[in-house]
């Protein structure tokens, strides 16, 4: 494009202050950092802006852009300072530099298959700015380009193309922090995107590639047809990870937790973390762990070891992961946060999270976005994660980007947290190592997420039994012609005289010998190395019974002391009037003048555990206050003038040497937050870790975490976990979505004593339940269906004495005085419906029906329940009553437990809502009608009569 046509088009389209507004901002940022780096004409202009009324050195960018319209380039009368042709071209040169920083990736050589013609990007051509061949040897100022201050245009263009249009495509100009942008420019432009490697480093790099490729081919021939999800085509990820860990060790990292799906997992286990090949071969041959009731396939297995690094030993863990691709992301982050907490590593300098992703999964799985959203929040940040995308340019059988995502690049989602993204050609392993260094150093410097997008390909099908040519004949013609990254790099080193022509084959033979020996292939840390701050799980006995007695009561004197601390607020701290009343009531509860409500009992449980040395971590949406205005673990000063100030957390001030208490109002996520808390709990068994749903059914959004980790993690992988879920549950007419916590789903997952499902019906029960979770030598997930209306029900209150003397009761018997010999019916129930049944019995003046509460639905308390049946020797009927429809709630799971305890001639009946598609009625009137019918049915004369209160008249 000629000079005149460019200037005319610029005037017509206002490019410089429209689509190219970033250019002006870049110049202005240069000026703010160092005015001498800006051309004289622009320096004078920006100096003038600083003299405008009210201007400061940090003048906003928008006035700069608006005022640019008045400059000569916008078509106004030329100013004397820009009349010179060279000064005008100088501006274009600086814009060309900025264009490469923004758009150079579009012309970068990223695809090892080179299948597609690179798009034309006019902004990267000097001619776009009216610069001609005659201008290439003119000298210009380079502005903020990391180079000599003056260079010829030819040299500038060469530097830019080598840096931004070769094997690396860097995206970072969207970052708002100028210091971070300048840091990246300094690192990448100073070396022109090229890594200076020694001959020894290059030989080691070839060895790593040889190890990666040879292992895959060895397994492919030794175990024909077995699934392993080969890394072939992406082997460069092995030297990438090795270099990342070694570089991290040199930077002071002591632990790293890695999360990845199945692609390449076996290779990482053997060649990075140090799993012995003999162990892997045994798994291929069917040998399994007899201690695991289920076990899992080999490409889901985790592993940990201690490897040697230049900075000393590093403990490296590969997290266990199901086939749900990215679901491991938040689990890794939670595990890392727990390890950082143990080390008091608040910045994240000592424990590093690394996540490996597939390209389609990174773009397509919502949990990726949710985990990124956690990355800089106070309760979940881990000091930045290094993300590595193994970009094989295909999603299962789809290789067309139009079908795998709606964004230009699979990594565009990371821009939401302003993470820099380094795209790199996997066939240029030295460039891969350079961006690995950049990524790790950026993370350590700024404690932010960073992404490496390693573009490669998939040599075989989705698995080794798949035939990719069926759906991708075009792509796989290119792949089948590709010699492999190792072969290409080996040939380069031979041609450059770094290695002899026979060395590549010798390396393959040497690696195969090591494989066949079965020994460890990764240099281990010293044999006497012990991980600092490691946690021992040995004290948690696998043979421990859930019903082993444990003392959870707390002396009344201590409870009174905790109560005083819970209501103690700083001087001049202004409470909201409603909160002030709640604290006044709590003060009276501590003195024994009022019975305890749920909020007070729960806070006392936390206080006692903290004083006993158990940290407590509670997270969820609005859990600081409590969804139902009941917890108030965080108090807010109504007189505060800044949003950062004015919060007081009483549980952090219980005792001088108490354990840590954290209460976190989470982002509006269930899946990522629950995954995070699971990871945290599996790494810290000595902390009470709780996640609270706003309503119990909100956990639906985290069902993968519940199914694949919480319920089955121990059976599959031997992972113990004491995570506690608080799920508000109860039919109060709030509609289908806010009634049921879906008890039936958790009961369906119950087997092999894997989880605990409880429905406490009093504050004292909640107190003892939370303490029991930590005090016994037993770590199992705890699912608690917590109340809503009961939180302020006067009948659902507990005296202080029940905390000082009692314990958690899996079954609570009849609390009113009845003649046991005259009881003909036992009504069993759980939760809120007990109080409605109790009130109805009082109104009806019934004396021959006893009501018992089953507080623990699983593991079912057979002995306690049997004792309750025996207490009524003349009872001939057992009635189960629940609020939920018959196809939901506990009935289908619990009925065979109940039937087991029936005496000869005893009948079993039920009172419940009719089976329904939705959990509850959406109309309040219909809810009330159904609820009344359920209670009436529990007391009906004929227990054998079918009960379907509120049945859908249209049901088939």
UniProtKB/TrEMBL annotation:
It comes from the Bacteria. CDD domains: TPP_E1_OGDC_like. Keywords: Oxidoreductase, Thiamine pyrophosphate. GO terms for biological process: tricarboxylic acid cycle. GO terms for molecular function: oxoglutarate dehydrogenase (succinyl-transferring) activity; thiamine pyrophosphate binding. One of its GO terms (cellular component) is cytosol. Residues 596-793 form the Transketolase-like pyrimidine-binding domain. The keyword Oxidoreductase applies. Gene3D superfamilies: 3.40.50.12470, 3.40.50.970, Multifunctional 2-oxoglutarate metabolism enzyme, C-terminal domain, TPP helical domain. Its EC number is 1.2.4.2. Its cofactor is thiamine diphosphate. E1 component of the 2-oxoglutarate dehydrogenase (OGDH) complex which catalyzes the decarboxylation of 2-oxoglutarate, the first step in the conversion of 2-oxoglutarate to succinyl-CoA and CO(2). PANTHER family: 2-OXOADIPATE DEHYDROGENASE COMPLEX COMPONENT E1, 2-OXOGLUTARATE DEHYDROGENASE. Belongs to the alpha-ketoglutarate dehydrogenase family. This is 2-oxoglutarate dehydrogenase E1 component. It comes from Ferriphaselus amnicola.
């Amino acid at each position: 494009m000629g000079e005149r046509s460019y200037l005319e088009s610029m005037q017509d389209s206002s490019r410089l202050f429209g689509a190219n507004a970033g250019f002006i901002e870049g110049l202005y940022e240069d000026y703010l950092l160092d005015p001498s780096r800006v051309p004289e004409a622009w320096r004078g202009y920006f100096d003038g802006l600083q003299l405008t009324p009210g201007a400061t050195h940090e003048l906003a960018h928008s006035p700069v852009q608006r005022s640019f319209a008045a400059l000569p380039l916008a078509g106004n009368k030329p100013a004397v300072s820009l009349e010179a042709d060279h000064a005008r071209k100088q501006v274009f040169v600086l814009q060309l530099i900025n264009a490469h920083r923004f758009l150079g990736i579009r012309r970068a050589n990223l695809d090892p298959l080179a299948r597609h013609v690179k798009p034309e990007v006019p902004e990267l051509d000097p001619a776009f700015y009216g610069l001609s061949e005659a201008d290439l040897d003119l000298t210009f100022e380079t502005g903020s380009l990391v180079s000599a201050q003056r260079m010829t245009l030819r040299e500038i263009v060469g530097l830019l193309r080598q840096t931004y249009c070769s094997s690396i495509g860097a995206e970072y100009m969207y970052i708002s922090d100028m210091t971070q942008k300048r840091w990246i420019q300094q690192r990448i432009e100073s070396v022109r995107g090229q890594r200076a490697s020694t001959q020894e480093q290059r030989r080691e790099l070839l060895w790593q590639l040889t190890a990666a490729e040879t292992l895959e081919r060895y397994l492919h021939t030794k175990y024909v047809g077995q699934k392993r999800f080969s890394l072939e085509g992406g082997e460069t990820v092995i030297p990438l990870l090795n270099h990342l860990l070694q570089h991290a060790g040199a930077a002071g990292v002591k632990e790293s937790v890695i999360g990845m799906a199945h692609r390449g997992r076996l290779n990482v286990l053997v060649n990075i973390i140090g799993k012995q090949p003999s162990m892997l071969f045994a798994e291929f041959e069917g040998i399994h762990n007899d201690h695991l009731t289920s076990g899992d396939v080999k490409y889901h297995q985790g592993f940990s070891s201690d490897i040697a690094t230049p900075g000393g030993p590093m403990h490296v863990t590969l997290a266990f992961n199901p086939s749900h691709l990215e679901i491991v992301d938040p689990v890794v982050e939670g595990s890392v946060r727990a390890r950082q907490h143990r080390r008091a590593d608040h910045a994240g300098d000592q424990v590093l999270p690394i996540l490996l992703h597939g390209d389609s999964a990174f773009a397509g799985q919502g949990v990726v976005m949710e985990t990124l959203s956690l990355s800089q929040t106070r309760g979940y940040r881990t000091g930045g994660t290094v993300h590595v995308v193994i970009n094989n340019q295909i999603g299962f059988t789809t290789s067309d980007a139009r079908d795998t995502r709606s964004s230009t690049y699979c990594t565009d989602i990371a821009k939401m947290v302003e993470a820099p993204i380094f795209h790199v050609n996997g066939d240029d392993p030295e460039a891969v190592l350079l961006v690995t260094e950049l990524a790790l150093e950026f993370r350590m410097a700024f404690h932010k997420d960073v992404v490496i997008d390693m573009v490669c390909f998939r040599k075989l099908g989705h698995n080794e039994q798949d035939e990719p040519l069926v759906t991708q004949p075009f792509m796989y013609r290119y792949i089948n012609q590709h010699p492999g990254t190792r072969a290409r790099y080996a040939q380069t080193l031979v041609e450059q005289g770094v290695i002899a022509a026979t060395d590549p084959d010798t390396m393959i033979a040497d690696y195969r010998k090591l494989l066949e020996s079965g020994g460890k292939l990764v240099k281990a840390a010293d044999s006497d190395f012990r991980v600092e701050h490691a946690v021992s799980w040995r004290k948690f006995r696998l043979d421990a019974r859930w019903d082993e007695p444990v003392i959870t009561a707390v002396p009344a004197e201590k409870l009174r002391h905790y109560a005083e601390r819970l209501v103690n607020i700083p001087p001049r701290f202004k409470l909201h009037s409603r909160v002030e009343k709640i604290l006044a009531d709590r003060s009276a509860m501590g003195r024994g003048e009022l019975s305890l409500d749920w909020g007070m009992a729960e806070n006392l449980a936390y206080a006692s555990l903290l004083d006993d040395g158990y940290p407590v971590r509670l997270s969820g949406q609005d859990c600081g206050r409590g969804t139902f205005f009941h917890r108030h673990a965080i108090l807010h000063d109504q007189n505060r003038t800044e949003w950062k100030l004015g919060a007081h957390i009483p549980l952090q001030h219980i005792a001088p040497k108490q354990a840590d208490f954290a209460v976190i109002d989470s982002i509006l996520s269930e899946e990522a937050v629950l995954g995070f808390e699971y990871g945290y709990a599996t790494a810290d068994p000595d902390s009470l870790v709780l996640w609270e749903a706003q309503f119990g059914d909100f956990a639906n959004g985290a069902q993968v975490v519940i199914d694949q980790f919480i319920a089955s993690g121990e059976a599959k992988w031997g992972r113990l976990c004491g995570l506690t879920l608080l799920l508000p549950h109860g039919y109060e007419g709030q509609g289908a979505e806010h009634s049921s916590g879906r008890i039936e789903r958790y009961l369906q997952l119950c087997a092999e004593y894997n989880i605990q499902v409880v429905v406490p019906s009093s504050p004292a029960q909640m107190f003892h339940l939370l303490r029991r979770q930590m005090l016994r030598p037993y770590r199992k997930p705890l699912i608690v269906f917590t109340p809503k209306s009961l939180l302020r029900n006067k009948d659902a209150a507990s005296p202080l004495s029940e905390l000082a003397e009692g314990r958690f009761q899996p079954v609570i018997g009849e609390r009113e005085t009845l003649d046991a010999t005259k009881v003909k019916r036992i009504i069993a129930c759980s939760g809120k419906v007990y109080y409605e049944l109790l009130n109805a019995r009082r109104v009806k003046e019934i004396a021959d029906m006893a009501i018992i509460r089953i507080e623990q639905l699983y593991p079912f308390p057979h002995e306690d329940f049997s004792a309750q049946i025996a207490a009524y020797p003349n009872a001939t009927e057992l009635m189960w009553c629940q609020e939920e429809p018959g196809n939901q709630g506990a009935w289908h799971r619990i009925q065979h437990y109940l039937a087991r305890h029936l005496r000869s001639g005893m009948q079993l009946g039920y009172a419940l809502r009719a089976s329904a598609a939705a959990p509850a009625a959406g109309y309040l009137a219909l809810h009330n009608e159904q609820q009344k019918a359920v209670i009436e049915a529990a007391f009906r004369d004929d227990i054998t009569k079918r009960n379907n209160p509120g049945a859908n008249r249209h049901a088939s």
